Amino acid sequence: MNPRDSLAIDPRTEARAGAGTFAEPWHAQVLAIANGLTVAGLFSRDDWAAALGAALRAAEAGGAPDTDATYYAAALAALEGLVAARDPATGGALSPRIEAWRQAYLHTPHGKPVVLGAGTGGAGDDGAG
Predict the structure, then answer these.
(1) Is 90 in contact with 96 (CB distance < 8 Å)?
(2) Distance linking the first and last C-alpha atoms of the chain
(3) C-alpha distance from residue 14 to each of 1, 29, 70, 121 (Å)
(4) Which residues of 18-41 are buried (b: 16+ CB within 10 A; e: fewer)?
(5) Is the pTM of this model over 0.70?
(6) What gap in Å lies between CA 39 and CA 96, rounded to an integer?
(7) Alpha carbon distance 18, 112 (integer Å)
(8) What does the pLDDT look like over 11-38, one tens digit per residue?
(9) What confidence score (pLDDT) does residue 83 get?
(10) pLDDT higher than 60, residue 1
């Protein structure tokens, strides 16, 4: 293992003066998960940097604006891609889980908490929909 790979990624170093670090909780979570998986050795910092760079270039090529939302969406895409490539069992479970959450929020009445499986007949289905 390269000694540089054991260094933690610190998203706080990217904070702008006078601005909050993260606009949404999931922004922090995606970077924290990437950091944890780097520290655990699932992928290296160089792998993370390459995957994130590729996701950002893909977003730019697709016409996405240069915004924080684009950055964090690219970070999530990079993380999902690395997990899928390095741990196929976990990576293969991502798409069905994402779709289950999508169906749950689409079938949850406004103002009610989203329950995984809502309206899909899965666990936690209360029949709301």
Answers:
(1) no
(2) 50
(3) 26, 15, 16, 43
(4) eeeebeeeebeebbeebbebbeee
(5) no
(6) 27
(7) 35
(8) 555 555 555 678 999 999 999 999 999 9
(9) 92
(10) no
Residue 57: its pLDDT value, please? 97
DSSP H stretches of helix in the chain: 25-39, 45-61, 68-86, 88-106
Distance CA 19, CA 119 (A): 40
d(CA 30, CA 79): 8
With tokens 């999902």, the residue in question is: 80
pLDDT the model gives residue 129: 38
At 116 the pLDDT is 84
Q: What is the rounded CA–CA span in Å between residue 56 and residue 28?
A: 17
Phi-psi region of 63 (alpha: psi -120 to 50; beta: other; left: phi over 0): left
- Average predicted confidence (pLDDT) for the chain: 81
